[in-house]
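Ticket #4471: complex job returned nothing on first submit. Input attached below:
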Amino acid sequence: MKNKLLKVNIQKKLKEFDLEVDFELKKGCLGILGPSGCGKSMTLKSIAGIINPDKGVVSLTADEETVYFDSDKRINLKPQKRNVGYLFQNYALFPNMTVEENIAVGLPKNHDPKEVSDMIRRFHLEGLEKRYPRQLSGGQQQRVALARILAYGPDVILLDEPFSAMDTYLKEQLRIELVNSLKDFDGFSVLVTHDRDEAFQFCDELIILDEGKIIAKGHTHEVFENPKKVEVARLTGCKNISEIEVIDDYHIKSLKWGLELETSEKISPNITHIGIRAHDFHPAQKDDVNAFDTENAALLEMPFEWEITLANGLWWKCEKQMREHEFVIPKYLRIDPKNIILLEE
Amino acid sequence: MTDWSPIFISMKTASLSILITFFIGLIVAWGIVKIKNDTTKIVLDGIFTLPIVLPPTVVGFFLLYIFGVRGPIGKFFLDFFALKIVFSWPATVIAAVVMSFPLMYRSARGAFEQVDSNLLDAGRTLGMSEWKIFWKVLFANALPGIVSGGILAYARGLGEFGATAMLAGNIAGQTRTLPMAVYSEVAAGNMGEAFNYVIVIIFISFIAIFIMDYFTIRKEKQWR
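Support reply: We reran it on our side without changes. The output follows.
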């Protein structure tokens, strides 16, 4: 048996920038993380065939290779022939069709009615068969949309910011539901998002896209732990980023916070910035390595966290208990040298 | 004694013309929505909308020019089928179609543009044919707008006067539609007869609007 492979290598000229995306996925879920308008959705739509790239190749190998798009060979399969499921941000359920009809829409005319009822059971939609999409809650709509896609039996599922327009409570619930629904799916999935938590939670592999270019690529954990570039650090949620002046191989001066810090890694000449995650500060003694004082810090209380803004502009986040409302800011804080992330512009 | 023939002529003309207008309007609207080039879009839209902006007699003048015995189409029909279009019943249909077309086309286009394009793409990724997407997704979801366009076009066709007078004339029993009959009776001083026709027109128009509105509202309520 051949190995499965989803290959995407596309270029498209856009008004603001040129989109250049190149990746291969061997299994599981790929996340594409980036700010809005960076070309994420464009990439998904190119895979689905809704938009045509100017140049490149999109192909899928399951049992055999199917070329979706190849600009050199002038191949451009219609979306109808690609066997790709697309979960739209607003789910795109047909408002004029009932739940049942929506799910059956991708099935052949003479399909077994059991196929639809199986999906209805699998997605816990019993009793809603005759309802119209407008009469469903957001969660139910998402389940119908997924049932419709999975009934069609796609090789690839594309998820286009599925939670971006929801309140926090619903979002958390639907994320869990989506993870469960996709557990049994053994094809590829690609999730596009601007939310680092979503990307982290769903995806084994991660691509970070900025202005149409891939700026980081790799295992999700790796990209988060070692972002390498300023923009990647910012997108993976690093709150503290500063330009630096190199003092020697293991010492730098932060230009933003006015601190001299020691690093555990040797500083190579291309390093221009450092990043420190907001959770990586610890209470310290005056003479500890990388310790600094916390005079004039501002304290902000969140339900499960303290957010402390230091006078020099650093952010510190510290876990707290729900019932605790008092917090004494330690006089000194330190940063473990190994927690200083070295970054390139 | 009231002559009932204008009622039958008008019903026949309005019914046939709405059938033609409805489908051509839908197809043209869909074609225009799909055009990507803005200039082409604006030029074509201008041409298709012109009949409601121009005075009906001007439209009638052009129609006479095209369908007249010396006009390109009129000559063709006369030479090959020995059919004279001007001052015959088909001319009333042609005039009604041309005059009511912009209303149908514009309403359908607006209704199509209101449909979320994601729905069409969703249909495509689910393997639906373009034909099925057009009817089951685009048409079905644009239906309320399309139906109201149809009502307007029907009413416009039923009330058509100026272009009809130019192209079809006012021949009793052949091309004398209800609006023509009202005009003729008033011109002849028969206000009573004219009044009868007026009542009939109001009655037909109201029934048509009622049926279609009822249908749309019920359909819409079902989804919401």
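Chain B touches chain A through 20 residues (CB under 8 Å). Closing as resolved unless it happens again.
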